[in-house]
Design brief:
The protein has one domain (about 1-20, about 90-285): Hypothetical protein af1432 (Orthogonal Bundle), CATH 1.10.3210.10. It is built from 16 helices and no strands. The protein has helices at about 1-15, 20-30, 35-45, 45-55, 70-80, 80-90, 95, 110-125, 135-145, 145-150, 160-165, 175-180, 185-195, 205-210, 220-235, 260-285. Helix 9 (about 135-145) crosses helix 14. It is globular, with a radius of gyration of 18 Å.
Length: about 280
């Protein structure tokens, strides 16, 4: 077990670092008080990303009547969340598109799950009892489960045994079962990746505590609860990562941080599924 944990952490160290512009964009977008001009300052120094942004904004998916050649105007149309999604698909494509064999998932499933979690987390953050930057919630949701890509290979062939352990009540949730088997779970591996990439808070905390939000640092707890619920919404809509779907505990203390009821939840499920389809279409142009 100790050897497996060591190998997993070694695998994290071997993952390619984010490009300076991708890291810079995540750093800017994680600030509570950032605006469009801050985003433009980062993007304009990346010729390839600028070109890709303009290309996609001018694609059929956006349905604009006239071509846009100005970056700031393009970002106004596309929105910050589109840009973060675009940057992360480029920067971490190999991670998002791993086959998740250890979870008996499928190629692209991690991206779909994280993207829907991001959209749901953003909408849930609007219902927070304390002010939250909803775009930060989106970015946190987009990154929250990246640890699964790291531990997946080490979990191959174990899904049936882990599920049996849960059914017998031997473990509280799938992450606990992972830790018993490997000495580390996907949230801890994700946190290690966040540190490896030098991600600013609250992003590493969301990666580490999204299944146990009550343990998140006080200053990030409300946001982590938003991602916790966003993750549940994604699984409820069928955008999961495989064998572990809905095998996590809902922390009932969410109501201390998020003012959400059944009607809100139903609306969020409908709206995020629609938002997901539109955003995926735009990114795939």
């Amino acid at each position: 077990m100790a050897a497996t944990k060591k190998n997993i952490l070694k695998a994290v160290e071997n993952i390619k670092l984010l490009s300076p512009n991708a890291a810079g964009l995540l750093e800017v977008s994680s600030r509570e008080n950032h605006d469009l001009k801050d985003i433009v300052r980062v993007i304009k120094h990346d010729a390839a990303l600028t070109a890709k942004t303009l290309q996609l904004v001018n694609s059929a998916a956006f349905g604009l009547h006239s071509k846009i050649s100005d970056l700031e105007r393009a970002i106004t149309y596309s929105g910050e969340n589109f840009l973060i999604s675009l940057v992360m698909t480029e920067a971490a494509d190999m991670i998002y598109n791993c086959d998740l064999a250890g979870y008996e998932g499928h190629k692209g499933g991690l991206w779909d799950h994280n993207l829907l979690t991001a959209l749901a987390s953003k909408r849930i953050a609007e219902l927070s009892k304390e002010p939250l930057n909803t775009n930060v919630a989106f970015t946190a949701g987009l990154l929250h489960d990246l640890g699964k890509a790291i531990v997946s290979d080490f979990l191959k062939g174990s899904a049936a045994d882990l599920l049996a352990s849960l059914d017998k009540g031997e473990m509280d949730d799938y992450a606990s079962a992972e830790e018993k088997l490997l000495g580390i779970d996907h949230t801890q591996a994700g946190y290690a990746l966040g540190l490896h990439w030098n991600l600013p808070e609250p992003l590493p905390s969301a990666m580490r505590y999204h299944h146990k939000p009550a343990e998140a640092p006080d200053e990030h707890r409300a946001l982590v609860y938003a991602v916790h619920l966003g993750d549940m919404v994604a699984m409820m809509t069928g955008r999961d990562t495989g064998a572990d779907a809905l095998r996590y505990q809902l922390d009932s203390n969410y109501s201390d941080f998020i003012d959400i009821n059944e009607n809100d939840l139903a609306q969020i499920i409908l709206e995020t599924d629609s938002d997901f389809s539109k955003l995926k279409e735009s990114l795939n142009e």
